[in-house]
Design brief:
The chain has 429 residues and is of the alpha/beta class. It has two domains: 11-47 and 311-428, Aspartate Aminotransferase, domain 1; 49-306, 3-Layer(aba) Sandwich (Aspartate Aminotransferase, domain 2). Helices cover 42% and strands 14% of the residues. The chain has 14 helices and 15 strands. The protein has helices at 11-15, 20-30, 49-60, 63-70, 79-93, 112-124, 139-147, 164-176, 202-214, 275-288, 294-306, 309-334, 367-375, 408-428; strands at 35-36, 107-111, 130-134, 151-155, 157-158, 161-162, 183-188, 222-226, 252-257, 268-272, 342-343, 351-355, 378-379, 381-382, 398-402. A seven-stranded mixed beta sheet has the order 2-10-9-8-7-3-4, with helices on both faces. A hairpin with a 7-residue loop joins strand 11 and strand 12. It is globular and about 65 Å long. It starts with 10 loop residues before the first helix and ends with a helix. Bound molecules: pyridoxal-5'-phosphate (PLP). Residues 40, 112-114, 138, 189, 194, 226, 228, 257, 259, 264, 269 line the site of pyridoxal-5'-phosphate.
């Protein structure tokens, strides 16, 4: 075969090309001296080494239990953990387990919640179908939508999250354009949105579910509630999930994860699915892996049943609260006197959403990014990635700053460098 004969890859591999997440990961590896306020990694010091050691000791001190954990599991995940997750969810929802109105068979365990997001997209979207998302939203999910050829349409947000009047107006517009049959999903990061840190107001949670049901007369419009940061609340109101407003349990898909509250390395996430989605999601998952790591599910089950989980999450929350405060204080200190910059104070999660004055762009190819990453050695996530490409709602002057991975000194130094870069960029205008 001559070397000049090139392989022909699938349309889907083309759609999945050049995702920003891979570029960011590569930048982090190649620029070790750069302080990364970009990485969504979690706090190193609070990772649960002792909790995992004790739980694994418990599993492997019993041969039969150890063998069970080391064997293949099932596509939907270990039954014991799925039962535990009902208890876990009931605790979060402040209701008795038997009032959850979902059985353990509706819990599907995945490799992080990311896999659940991807499986739901695979189960719902044909190329050209539509997903409604907040502007801005989790850019990796935008990549997933690209990867299946779906169209993301951005809905306006404010400090209370996605605007429900704008959501209803967009659905009416799509109906008038004859596109309603293509609209399959509303995607919401309901708690401390990645990237904006905003939590959807309680009344709006109810309204989004109502709107989805209203527009489900000819075809079900699902809501994917991505609650990745639910357990990272530092202050402010504890809000009910959007899922809790879905009385029939047929509209909201709830995606949760132990990555942020416990360990991303364990890669245990899960979906609580409407009954008729369990089959399609498990069929697709069967083709991918016929089950996520069984041992990790046994580990997490041991952690949950041992009572070690809740105190650990209390510690994690305290650590992040201090780091959030360290970032806000550093921003106040370093940006005092720099005109036109602003940022949002998050009540939870891992991110501060930051804007520079309008003519300044922050994208990978921008002078601002170059000044920050190369000259001043600090990295952020360009805000424009968090909007669907070409969206009229896309702003170009924003940044996502994470306080997850740096310690308090790193945060202070990172913000000092960022302020120097922004000052230099403003001076060039
Ligand atoms: C909003 C959101 N959803 C889902 C995920 C996926 O996380 P994991 O696959 O580790 O559960 C992340 C990770 O950063 C996230 O920020």
């Amino acid at each position: 075969m001559p070397d000049s004969v090139t392989p022909r890859f699938s349309q889907r591999s083309q759609w999945a090309k050049d995702q920003a997440i891979s570029f960011l990961m590569q930048q982090a590896v190649e620029n070790r001296d750069v302080i990364s306020l970009a990485a969504g990694l979690v706090d190193e010091a609070s990772l649960p080494v002792a909790e995992c050691r004790q739980s694994l000791d418990g599993i492997f001190s019993d041969d039969a239990r150890g063998r069970l954990a080391l064997q293949y599991g099932t596509t939907a995940g270990a039954d014991a953990l799925r039962e535990q997750l009902r208890i876990h969810l009931a605790r979060q929802e402040h209701c008795p387990v038997d009032e959850l109105k979902v059985g353990a068979h509706q819990f599907v365990l995945t490799t992080g919640s990311q896999q659940l997001l991807a499986l739901v997209a695979d189960a719902l979207f044909d190329p050209g179908d539509i997903c409604l998302v907040a502007a801005p939203t989790y850019f990796v999910f935008l990549g997933v939508l690209n990867g299946v050829g779906a169209r993301a349409i951005a809905i306006d947000t404010d400090e209370y999250g996605m605007k429900t009047d704008a959501l209803a107006a967009e659905l009416a517009r799509l109906q008038a354009a004859g596109e309603l049959p293509r609209v399959k999903l509303i995607y919401l990061v309901s708690y401390y949105e990645n990237p904006s840190g905003v939590s959807l107001a309680t009344e709006r949670r109810r309204e989004v579910v109502q709107i989805a049901k209203q527009w489900s007369q000819h075809q079900r419009l699902f809501v994917l509630e991505d609650a990745a940061y639910r357990e990272l609340r530092y202050d402010g109101e504890e809000r009910p999930s959007a899922w809790s407003f879905d009385n029939e349990r047929n509209t909201v898909i709830l995606a949760q994860t132990f990555s942020k509250s416990f360990s991303p390395g364990v890669r245990v996430g899960y979906g609580v699915l409407p009954r008729d989605l369990v089959g399609p999601v498990c069929d697709l998952k069967g083709n991918e892996d016929f089950g996520s790591a069984n041992m990790n599910q046994h580990l997490l089950n041991a952690v949950l049943t041992s009572g070690r989980y809740v105190p650990h999450v209390d510690q994690v929350r305290a650590a992040y609260r201090s780091k959030r405060d360290a970032m806000l204080q550093a921003l106040d200190r370093e940006f005092a006197g720099i005109p036109g910059v602003k940022w949002l104070r998050p009540e939870g999660g891992l991110y501060v959403w930051f804007s520079v004055p309008e003519p300044i762009e922050t994208g990978f190819a921008s002078r601002m990014f170059q000044l920050a990453a190369k000259t001043h050695q600090v990295m952020y996530v360009p805000g424009e990635l968090c909007y669907p490409g070409g969206s009229p709602r896309q702003h170009k002057n924003e940044m996502r700053l994470s306080f997850g991975v740096q310690n308090e000194l790193g945060i202070a130094e990172g913000i000092r460098r960022l302020a120097a870069a922004v000052r230099e960029r403003i001076a060039e205008l």
